[in-house]
Amino acid sequence: MTFTAAEIARHLGGEVVGDAAVVLNGFAPATTAKAGDLTFAENEAYLARAEQTEATAVLVDGQLASTKKTIIRVTNARVAFAKALALFFPEPVYPAVRHATAVIAASAQIDPTAHVGPFCVVGEQAVVGPRVVLHGYVFVGERCVISENAQIFAHVTLYPRTQIGRRARIHAGSVIGSDGFGYVIDQGAHFKVPQVGFVSIQDDVEIGANTTIDRGTLGPTVIGKGTKIDNLVQVGHNVVMGESGIVVSQTGIAGSTKLGNFVTLAGQVGLAGHLKIGDRVTVAAQSGVMNDIPEGQKWLGSPARPDRQMKRSWIALNELPEVLRRVQDLEKKVFGTSARNSHPEPGH
User: Which ranges in the chain are annotated with CATH 3.40.1390.10?
Assistant: First the structure.
């Protein structure tokens, strides 16, 4: 697709400095940009680099200027970058179709505008809404509800009664609504607690590949509106996630933990069960959280603690070898030898 600089600026709410009629037919990073490409620069250093390339125009923050390139000025170059990419690489439009190999229960309701790809299975009383896309090999269990414009990628499994909100995207291999990990000891054996709840995924949620979300024991496991979940994440039963959260790869959230709005969990974070995590909390990568976290705080470490407290502990730990050396020097001055060496090891 091709656009003039002026057309792109109008779409992004920016302004053109230079040739507004110049035609752009691609978007590329500065390192590989060629004639006809648009690239972007967030600061002067990146702009200087972009000026050395063949790129025809550059998206820039604020008042950055160039004498070599046509400039499209925007408030935030990174946001504009995302919007411009969508212009040059629009989402495919899938036809309204039910593939001949799909297996659809007689009681299922499939909107006429939905796309049901090859080898999909849609269970009894399931509802597939307007413009929903089910890619190949998707399994939709009985009484699932998939709302309008949702897109479910290949090999996703939706267990019975799963609810998917509008414009949700669930990537390949994810499993939504499997049994929660719940057992009690009965006569010396693990007795399974029946998991009879469901999963509710709200509007504008995106779930990465091979993520698993367990259904609730009785009520729902809830993924709040606008939340974005990375690949390889595990969400336990009865977890309730607030709106607009970010959960990065390999994070695990144990059952019945409640997260507020705008919570960020970095990679490989582990949350214990039955915790309360407040709004706008950030948990740093590889942290293990065992306690409730009040809103607005940043925690890190394992076991996790408030960031300043944990950083002081790490500084003290780094200083420990030097402290021990100084203690040994003092012992030698006072006692003539180190107290550490004044007593033989057991067995000697």
Answer: 3-88
